């Protein structure tokens, strides 16, 4: 039996080609829709593929064979999902179609936790036909859609109309708060042409004050060093004509109750609009979760992730979003000011996850 494939922009065109080649007695084995061209499997042109033959007896056998294979493939997906339900993710998915298996590996290798991979596999199983389990473009579409839905809660820094926006950056030591403030200040001052002022309450580290002072001189933003809540509020009042006031706080260990209490007292009594918690993407997920839980007592409005350039993937971001109902605002991926920070863009995150 000779099985042939015919493609057209729509079903009518594909069927016309079948009839022209095989005649009116042609037997249709199956049809499917494909993406042709596009970028990374997206925005491609939709086409229709028809598989047909002339031999009815053999075509029936072929059809049954194909149906059996598709049924087995669907059953494999079901078995995998059952294993994932009981958190037994292991090499049992090795028998799945190669393309699907590689996409699973890609997510796991970037640190996406198994529960999220399970949810994505469920979406793939629900939205794709068994024939599409080996279709990389369609699998990418489902994964991209899932990631974008998870990243819908993003919130870049938005200024007020007639008064300054006051933002405090907080977090553990060594996550890059001071550099992040410099990047944000430079972006809003030099790129967005806004009037920015800086305040540092990080008086524990002389180097941090000197570093921020250097940045303030470079971008032409005034800087105030404060040692108390009263001085902080006075500095905020002093900069009432600015568009944006950024406050650098001292690094605090989430395990040091006294330090956390001091930070809480400072921010509770200051005229601050939003608190941005800065997190290092190279930190273990369990530690990040502990940090967020402790800093939530102080108050967290948004998250900033740093050091993307030092880690293998973005899995931590999806994992944190899955654990906490806190928007992600920015991602930083280097030391350059102000280039190496940007408001989180779901499409760019998807591109990083799915890049070859």
TrEMBL record:
List the GO biological process terms.
Answer: bacterial-type flagellum organization; protein transport; SRP-dependent cotranslational protein targeting to membrane
Q: Where is the SRP54-type proteins GTP-binding domain?
A: 164-355
What Gene3D superfamilies does this protein's entry cite? Flagellar FlhF biosynthesis protein, N domain (1.20.120.1380), P-loop containing nucleotide triphosphate hydrolases (3.40.50.300)
Q: Which residues form a coiled coil?
A: 56-90
InterPro entries linked: AAA+_ATPase, FlhF, FlhF__GTPase_dom, P-loop_NTPase, SRP54_GTPase_dom
The similarity annotation says:
Belongs to the GTP-binding SRP family.
Please describe what this protein does.
Answer: Necessary for flagellar biosynthesis. May be involved in translocation of the flagellum.
The name under which this protein is listed is Flagellar biosynthesis protein FlhF
């Amino acid at each position: 039996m000779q099985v042939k494939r015919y493609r057209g922009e729509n079903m009518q065109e594909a069927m016309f080609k079948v009839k022209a080649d095989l005649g009116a007695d042609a037997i249709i084995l199956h049809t499917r829709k494909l993406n042709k061209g596009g970028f990374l499997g997206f925005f491609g042109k939709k086409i229709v593929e028809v598989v047909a033959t002339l031999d009815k007896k053999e075509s029936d056998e072929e059809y049954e064979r194909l149906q059996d294979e598709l049924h087995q493939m669907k059953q494999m997906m079901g078995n995998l999902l059952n294993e994932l339900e009981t958190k037994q993710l292991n090499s049992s998915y090795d028998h799945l179609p190669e393309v699907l298996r590689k996409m699973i590996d890609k997510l796991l290798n970037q640190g996406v936790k198994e529960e999220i991979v399970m949810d994505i596999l469920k979406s793939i199983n629900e939205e794709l036909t068994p024939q599409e389990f080996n279709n990389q473009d369609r699998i990418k579409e489902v994964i991209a859609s899932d990631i974008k839905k998870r990243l819908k809660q993003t919130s870049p820094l938005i200024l007020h109309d007639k008064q300054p926006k006051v933002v405090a950056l907080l977090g553990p030591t060594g996550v890059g708060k001071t550099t992040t403030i410099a990047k944000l200040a430079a972006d809003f001052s030099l790129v967005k042409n806004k009037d920015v002022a800086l305040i540092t309450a990080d008086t524990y580290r002389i180097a941090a004050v000197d570093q921020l002072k250097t940045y303030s001189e470079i971008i032409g933003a005034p800087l105030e060093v404060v040692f108390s809540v009263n001085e902080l509020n006075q500095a905020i009042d002093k900069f009432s004509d600015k568009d944006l006031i950024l406050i650098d706080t001292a690094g605090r260990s989430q395990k040091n109750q006294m330090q956390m209490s001091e930070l809480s007292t400072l921010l509770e009594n200051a005229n601050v609009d939003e608190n941005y918690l800065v997190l290092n993407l190279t930190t273990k997920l369990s530690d990040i979760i502990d940090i967020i839980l402790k800093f939530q007592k102080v108050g967290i409005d948004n998250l900033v992730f740093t050091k993307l350039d030092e880690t293998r993937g973005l899995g931590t971001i999806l994992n944190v979003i899955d654990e906490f109902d806190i928007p992600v605002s920015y991602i930083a991926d280097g030391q350059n000011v102000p280039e190496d920070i940007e408001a989180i863009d779901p499409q760019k995150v998807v591109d990083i996850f799915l890049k070859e």
